[in-house]
Amino acid sequence: FSSRRRHTRLQGDWSSDVCSSDLSLGVPYTFTVTASNIAGTSVASAPSTSITLRGSPGTPTAPNASVTSSGVSLVWTAPSGNGGTISDYTIQYSSNSGGTWTTFVDAVSATTAAVVRGLTLGTSYTFRVAAISEQGTGQFSAASSAVVPAGMPDAPGKPTGSANGNSINVS
User: pTM for the full model?
Assistant: First the structure.
């Protein structure tokens, strides 16, 4: 068979499949066949249609987590699709340093950013993500740094003031 410009000679019982384990994911390959006997080797067959090995997606980078007014914003870098197309990400969070993980349910998206809402204010969280393609789910990323969501503060009480000569004291 041939792979791009590399040629590898495989010998075997041609009444069954011949396998090679040194092929790379995401690389298109075409194959040709020749026949050999004592008289020599034939001309190569026409190439096969292109075949691409596909595997589960790679591992994304650890998400960068930051607290916003609407939740925790996550941003990460997409991994290799390993021949497949990344169609979504699974986002998980932990409030006990990765002892247990909860999956955040959101819309399907290949975007490498999300806002996680509905977390308990004042609780420390870490986050991780995994890519999903037609070949399955890849490995989860390393965990993000911990962040603590906080809500808007309550309005302060009504201030009081008093004039004292040429200044005003407010408390």
Answer: 0.70
